[in-house]
Amino acid sequence: MLKGLIGKKIGMTQIFDGDGRAVPVTLIEAGPCFVSQVKTVENDGYNAVQLAFDEVKPKRLSKAELGHLKTNKLPPVRTLREFRTNKLDGINAGDELDASVFEVGDFVDVIGTSKGKGFAGAMKRWGFGGGPMTHGQSDRQRSPGSSGSGTTPGRVFKGKKRPGRMGNVRVTSSHIRVAMVDSERNLIGVQGSVPGAKGGTVMIKAARKQ
After folding, report:
1. What is the pLDDT of residues 33-81, one digit of tens each?
2. From 191's CA, which of 15, 40, 79, 144 has a CA 20 to 30 Å away?
3. What phi and psi, each to the nearest 5 degrees, are found at residue 6?
């Protein structure tokens, strides 16, 4: 069975374990997901399973997207994601997956898009210390300081940590423990926080670092 799902982040809460300790968890509405395509080495050059999630009205999708889903008699869904896997036994296009693919105690990686913070300075974006607060300087407290040398090389290297747009990038939270599974309501509770805002789309897959 494929150990992977697409979900929607609901928010954070807490549950109590068997010893009465409060455990912070993030609730994710995981599934139902549909297998919209199975890719193989012979046909596509690699093994992967494409999952579809989040049903919408047909007018929200293009004709190409509707045609792709109609091939396997699937409803119109908004989100398609691929999961690489080496085990394709028992996985067929059109299958439906729910939260029951995971169990309490499993370790997973959760992939999402971090919250966008807009344009940010070097101190907020990278944690720089800023300039001195005294000795005559008046407007350099939050400045990043010098970004490069003069004549040689005479430019700023690519990748230098500078002010710019912060957040809104793909982030993976690795090796998170599954603390709760409610297959009837398709809810998964993972210990700790996961990237993104409430309502954001996330991918849940078996942890790579076992």
Report:
1. 999 999 999 999 999 999 999 889 999 999 999 999 988 889 999 999 9
2. 79
3. -105, 140
Burial 119-147 (b: 16+ CB within 10 A, else e): eebbeebeebeeeeeeeeeeeeeeebeee
**Of the options 3.40.50.300, 2.40.30.10, 3.30.200.20, 3.90.1150.10, the CATH number for the domain spanning 4-117+165-206:** 2.40.30.10
- The Cα–Cα gap between 59 and 74 comes to 15
CA 45 to CA 38: how far, in whole Å?
12
pTM: 0.85
**Are the C-beta atoms of residues 202 and 113 closer than 8 Å to each other?**
no
**Domains of the chain by residue range:** 4-117+165-206
Cβ contact 12:27 at 8 Å: yes
Instruction: Provide the residue type at 100 as one letter.
Output: S
Beta bridge partners of 187: 29, 182
